[in-house]
Design goal:
Elements: H1 4-16, E1 39-43, H2 50-61, E2 65-69, H3 83-94, E3 99-103, H4 111-120, E4 124-129, H5 132-142, E5 147-151, H6 157-164, H7 173-189, H8 193-197, H9 203-223, H10 228-240, E6 245-246, H11 248-254, H12 260-272, E7 276-280, H13 286-289, E8 293-297, H14 311-330, E9 336-343, E10 347-355, E11 358-368, H15 374-391, E12 396-402, E13 406-410, E14 413-419, H16 420-424
Parallel strand pairs: 1-4, 1-5, 2-3, 3-4, 11-12, 12-14
Antiparallel strand pairs: 6-8, 7-8, 9-10, 10-11, 13-14
Helix pairs in contact: 1-3, 6-7, 9-10, 11-12
Length: 427
């Protein structure tokens, strides 16, 4: 490939610009095992900080590594047959190295064959990708379990506080007030690293560009989508429906899409590209679990402001979205799953945390519980109580934006009421 050495040399120069001291520490750093024989794979939505995370871990470790960014437009036409040439050029540029960092590796068709061969040769690999299905599907098939997967989301509220210099655990009145202010900002702006680090960037343009990249690069090109505009319109509509329960049939009708199968496929692609997080309904019947999904955006930055919505309503929904993503961030075991519970005309529970087929916790989210109305009290607290009887789970949590932390005893059950900021900052 023409100018390959120059392209790879330019990418190496990018590493010299990384200021390690300016980078926020992220708990996922501890999950990357550089001495492992398994390929270390960091997956997540575009621009969530995957590349920076891997660079930070590699540079701080002191290991000798080489770097290739396959999201570089100059490498778009690289095929698997050219990867050996790239490897040769990397040795010429970097000298001997023990670790190889392949950024957005899914952009190369057949990449898994190359990775498999390098693993057999004993090279330590760090990979990033923006499509969960692509990576997990191909790796499980071709690498037979020789990989360790780490999911990375945009900055959590704890990381947001670190970046903003907000005291996350101070006990003074000032500290509490600044945390409340930071949470208000986080609910509106989200946690994409570039938007936080560079507030002068146009948020609208940035998110439009990001959505376009996800839809066109991560989905349309990969799956050869015929109706690109339909997919784009669907993505935007689903983001507008955040925190809402929708069936595939309902979505097809509202979007005037004739094929429910197409809707299901498109939503799966959007979920695999980490634009959306979809929760199944909790039920002992598989037909009910698959009948509907609750929609969440991977980050609040993607959420459009509802027209004519009350501010408290908007904040309440945004808080629920943040809690959903935080719960997914905290679920690491393959035996842990997240659901919602809804009995029509009876009660709802926002989140059901399941571990090894056992319901571990029921969580309700509300904006204002300072002086709850009878209606609010009945909806939130009684929902937890009824959910407790149904699931036989006594670990009940109500997360509130405003209010007094306390325990409420109802019907022999105890509901733990906690402030959202405190819950989000739990270590």
């Amino acid at each position: 490939m023409k100018d390959l050495k120059r392209i790879l040399s330019n990418q190496k120069a990018e590493l010299d610009l990384v200021d390690l001291e300016a980078l926020c520490a992220r708990k996922e750093e501890q999950e990357i095992q550089l001495n492992s024989k398994l390929a270390q794979i960091v997956i997540g939505v575009r621009r969530s900080g995957k590349s920076t995370l891997c660079m930070k871990v590699l540079m701080q470790s002191g290991v000798q590594f080489a770097y290739v960014n396959f999201d570089d437009e100059r490498l778009q036409k690289v095929g698997v047959e050219e990867l050996d040439v790239i490897l040769q050029e990397l040795y010429a540029i970097y000298g001997s190295f023990t670790h190889l960092f392949l950024d957005e590796v899914q952009n190369v068709d057949g990449w898994h064959l190359f990775v498999n061969r390098l693993l057999r040769q004993g090279i330590k690999l760090v990979l990033t990708g923006s499509n969960a299905n692509l990576l997990s599907g191909e790796l499980s098939t071709h690498l037979t379990g020789r990989y360790h997967q780490i999911e990375l989301y945009p900055f959590s509220f704890s990381e947001y506080c670190t970046i903003r210099g907000v005291d996350a655990h101070g006990m003074t009145t000032k500290a509490y007030g600044l945390r409340d202010k930071a949470l208000d900002e986080y609910l509106m702006s989200g946690g994409f690293p570039e938007l936080i680090a560079s507030p002068e960037i146009s948020k609208r343009d940035y998110l439009f560009s990001l959505r376009e990249a996800i839809v066109k690069k991560d989905i349309c090109q990969r799956y050869k989508i015929r109706y690109k505009q339909t997919l784009s319109d669907l993505a935007n509509r689903l983001l507008d429906w955040f925190c809402q329960e929708k069936s595939y049939n309902d979505i097809a009708k509202e979007m005037s899409i004739n094929s429910v199968h197409t809707v299901k496929n498109y939503i799966t692609y959007l979920q695999n590209a980490y634009l959306l997080c979809l929760l199944p309904k909790f039920s002992l019947k598989s037909s009910e679990r698959n009948s509907a999904r609750k929609m969440y955006a991977v980050d609040n930055a993607f959420i459009s402001q509802h027209e004519n919505a009350l501010l408290t309503e908007s904040f309440g929904l945004r808080l629920e979205n943040v809690v959903a993503v935080e719960l997914l961030r905290r679920l690491h075991s393959e035996y842990e799953q997240l659901y919602y519970l809804r009995k029509v005309q009876d009660f709802e529970v926002d989140f059901v945390v399941v571990e090894s087929s056992h319901v571990r916790e029921l969580i309700q989210v509300t904006y204002d519980f300072v002086e709850p109305s009878a209606k609010l009290y009945n909806r939130e607290v009684n929902g937890l109580i009824k959910g407790s009887h149904l699931t036989r789970c006594d670990n009940l949590t109500l997360i509130m934006m405003r209010g007094e932390p306390r325990d409420i005893q109802v019907d022999g059950k105890i509901v733990h009421c906690v402030l959202a900021a405190d819950w989000l900052l739990q270590r």
